[in-house]
Amino acid sequence: MSINILNSNKNDVKDAESLKQLEFIEQAKEKVAALEKNLGRKPTACVVTFGCQMNARDSEKLLAILKLAGYEEVETEDADFVIYNTCTVRDNADQRVYGRLGQCSNFKKKNPHMKIAICGCLMQEQSAVEKIQKSYRFVDLIFGTHNIYKFAELLNTTLDSDRMIIDIWKETDKIVEDLPVMRKYPFKSGVNIMFGCDNFCTYCIVPYVRGRERSRSPKDIIRECEKLAADGVKEVMLLGQNVNSYGFDFEEGDSNKITFAELLKMVCEVEGIERVRFMTPHPKDFSDDVIDVIAANPKIARHIHLPLQAGNNEILRRMNRKYTKEQFIDLAMKIRERIPDVAITTDIIVGFPGESAADVDDTIDVIKQVKFDNAFTFIYSKRTGTPAASMPDQVPEEEVKVNFDKLLKVVQDTAKEQAEKLQGRTERVLVEGVNEHDAALLTGRMSNNTLVHFPGDEALIGSFVDVSLDECHGFYYMGTMR
Ligand code: SF4
């Protein structure tokens, strides 16, 4: 199934900055063509993504530009152009990037034409940029999250230069529309609805590296969804760090000022879009309106990811989450009552400064009451520059480990119990691909985000089919097509 690069044609592009970037792609094309002649083969490019869905979406834009410039995409970092799109949420994410960079230097020794770029959240931290300048001199280009839209221009400069180019902006209020984008899947796509975050949870670096909340105009979002639908996309995922505060940043009286609930309704009306997901809402802003819109609209996936983080009120206060354990439980129960069949998943951090075993029991109590369908559990990771990093009572590693294991067991038992409830039902699934372990099976995703594997023909990839759920294997099902 071939995938088109959207916004690669000047006639489709309205934004002046994007038109300028298309010019830079034209210039880069000539340089890549010269390189091709010199190498006697097509130059190759590899984009390595760390972190969240927002980064994955950014990588699709980077890859589109490289392809338009004439590079061929490859999976290996032994390529002519490699970009690391970094994440900084967890400490080990940095370490992984540095490890990969070290390996990449060996490829560069063999290939003098190779260019290495590094971008993303980690590059918004001055200490990380200094480390690369000092210890990884072979890197050719460093840029950040705020000027990613200038990648075509930076690519063009890098192709002409032997020096390390560094372009990091502290912030931006700009949203550039219509950048070229190459989707990973022909049938589903992420759609950014806003950038940045205003919440300042005390453990999180995002507000410092991604800046303040900036919402895209509803008109631009709908236009993008329409283009995607025309290009064969059936499922969209609306992306933002805090999607339910969408539109809060527009002035009163601005015609763009609509709520997330209204936006959801508008996206559902786009012809051709058959399923709508969103990631991530913040519990404090989850309005009744949003619940009502989901309940009334079968196109909206029966899956809500609602990050709890902790279940103890004092820990929640110190995390600056702005809700209590009781408020969270009430919200989750209301969602379960109004949207039957919904799956609620969550994120939980264990080992936040000052968290005792009794505090973790409060979190376990929430898991048992809400019955999360799944949870991503993390050990607290100290991020330099966040308020929590300098809190005095950091919990010893051993203690965190014991609490983490205890909590994980409850998460797994609850998730299994929840999954088993679906046994014997028939669900509509979007076929996403051939099973990774058995080529005779297809893998499909249900509205509630659970995967099911079943025998079927590859030609069904990208379509919706009905599958009966025959056998529960913990987090996934084996099924038969109806
Ligand atoms: S809501 Fe909190 S955890 Fe999420 S991105 Fe914003 S500051 Fe970080």
Keywords for this entry:
single chain; 482 residues; alpha/beta; Rossmann fold; Transcription Regulator spoIIAA; 4 domains; six-stranded parallel β-sheet; five-stranded mixed β-barrel; 13 helices; globular; binds iron/sulfur cluster
Strand count, sense and barrel status of the largest sheet are: 6 strands, parallel
CATH topology-level name of the largest domain? Rossmann fold
Number of strands: 21
User: For the largest beta sheet, what order do the strands appear in spatially?
Assistant: 3-2-4-5-6-7
Number of domains: 4
Silhouette: globular
Structural class by SSE content: alpha/beta
Ions, cofactors, ligands: which are bound?
Answer: iron/sulfur cluster
**What top-tier CATH class of the largest domain fits best?**
Alpha Beta
Describe this structure in words.
This protein has 482 residues and is of the alpha/beta class. The protein is 37% helix and 21% strand. The chain has a six-stranded parallel sheet with strand order 3-2-4-5-6-7, with helices on both faces. Strands 17-18-19-21-20 form a five-stranded mixed β-barrel. It has a three-stranded parallel sheet with strand order 9-12-13, sandwiched between helices. The longest helix has 24 residues, at 16-39. The mean pLDDT is 93. The protein binds iron/sulfur cluster. Iron/sulfur cluster binds next to helix 6.
